[in-house]
Every structure is written in structure tokens, then in C-alpha cells.
Amino acid sequence: MTATAKAKPKNLDPAEFVQARTFAGDAWLQFRKHRLALIAVAVLAIIVLGVLIGPAFWTLDPTYIDIIAAYQISSPEHPFGTDSLGRDTLARALQGGRVSLMIGVSAMLVSISIGTIVGLASGYFRRLDNPLMRLTDIFIALPQLPLLLVLMMLFREPLKAAFGVEGGVFILMVSVIGGLQWMPTARLVRGEVLSVKSREFITAATAVGSRDGRILTSHILPNVMSPVIVAATFSIASAIITESALSFLGLGFPPDFPTWGRLLFDGKDYLTITWTLVFWPGLLISLTVLCVNFIGDGLRDALDPRLRK
Asked: pLDDT by residue (tens digit) across 192-204?
């Protein structure tokens, strides 16, 4: 055989050709199978980019009043129409979207943080399990909407005086919405902790003298993050709907500081004159919540080890 002749390939085990698999790679492969979740990611990205960078391209002032242009349905100058004072609905929707999305994300962080802490403590420390779960049951049994209205009425004015009108309402909404939506996360995390802490690596960590805090943060918490991430997506959707409901009832931001829910509240009295005042903010709320729910469904399937091959 000459030096230039090709060597005969060795008979290798097919397993040697299998590429190394990772958790993120498996999750992404499973997530791609959820077509609605992929479409939801694209639509939500358009909405988020629109509210974040849209005002840089659509430069009309959302507070500019033009009585002559009032009650327009749609025109080249005002694609989403105008309100009763002639203010551009598209500019107000872009401005309001920032606030609505910020409240949704901030309230989600509050609720997920409280729920994760309560769930970890309840599932890991046996002496805390019964008191924390009974506290969770009490919060679940409370009527959510009446309690939201009472808390908004009680703390609205003190927080306005301390942090200003916009800052006070924002802090109050995030605190109230996040503080009343942590219970499902706490129950979910507790169940996962009870399952994880009975495994061998937790027993080994306890045997070598690891402290409870290190076991919780280094061993148990990483193993319960998958369901927490899924719960976070649904929490964002719930927070956006709750903020919209409060704003629709007139307990949100002032009229000159619009959110999507506030735009609905302002437009309901003029529904017989122009339908665009409620259509566009309602559509944005519906699309955002629907996309977040579809993404949550996709993540739930992608992070479920029973569905990953």
C-alpha cells in the first residue's frame, strides 16, 4: 500500500459518535417542537421591542392635545386613532406598554422570590412545614380582588406622599400584586424540595457535614429552578392582567401616565364614538398574556425530564 493510500477506517462504537448532550441543549430541542411557543416568542419580542424602542421612531408626544383631531379612528398621522382630547393612541400605547410590562416583571420577581423562600423553608425544615403551609392556605382563602382594592385604597395616598404620584403607585402595585400571588409557587417549590431532599446526593452532603444553608443554595435550589422558571412566566401574565383590572377600575396611575389598563378605562366612555380607544390596548394586553402563557407551556414541556429523550 502506498503512502498516499487511504487508511481503512476503524470500526468504532456508534456511541462514540454521539455528541455530548447538555441540559440546555435538550431543553431547546424540546422547546422547538412547540410551534405555538416559538410563534409566541416572536410576537412577544415584537411587542417588547415596540414599547422599548418604538418611541424613538414614533416621535409624537403622547400628552400633546389636539382637539381638532379628536375621535379619529385611523389615519396616516394617527394609525391607532386619537382619544377625546386628540392625543395619539399609538404613542400612548407605546408609553403605557413600558409601565405594564415593568409592573408584570417586577411583580413576578416579588411573588417568585417570596414563594421560593417559603417553599424551600417549608419543604426542607420539618418544623416549619405546617405553620408555613397553613399561612399559605390562609392567603389562598382570602378574596383576592376585594383585598387588592382595600390595600390600594389604604396605602395609595401615603405612598404617593412619600415617593410621588407615579413612584408611589408603582411601588404599591408591585408590592400588592406580588405579595398576593406567591402561594402557588410556594406549594410547587415545597413539593419539589420534598422530592429532591430524599435523594442520595443530599444524604451524602448531610453526611459530610454541609450546613443547611449550603445544601439549600448549592444542591436543592438548582434542582427546583425548572418549575420555578415555568411558574414565573405564568406569574407575569397574571400580574399584567391584575394591573390592567386595577387600572380599569380607576385605582392605577393617573390619566396623564397611561398604562394599557388605564387606556381601557379612559376609552370605555367613548366606545360608541370610536372603538379604537379600547381595541388597541385590549389587543396588546391579550396578545402579551397569550404569548406569555404559550411560552410557559413550551418551557413546561421543555423542562420536563419525562418528555426529553
From this structure: 898 888 888 888 8
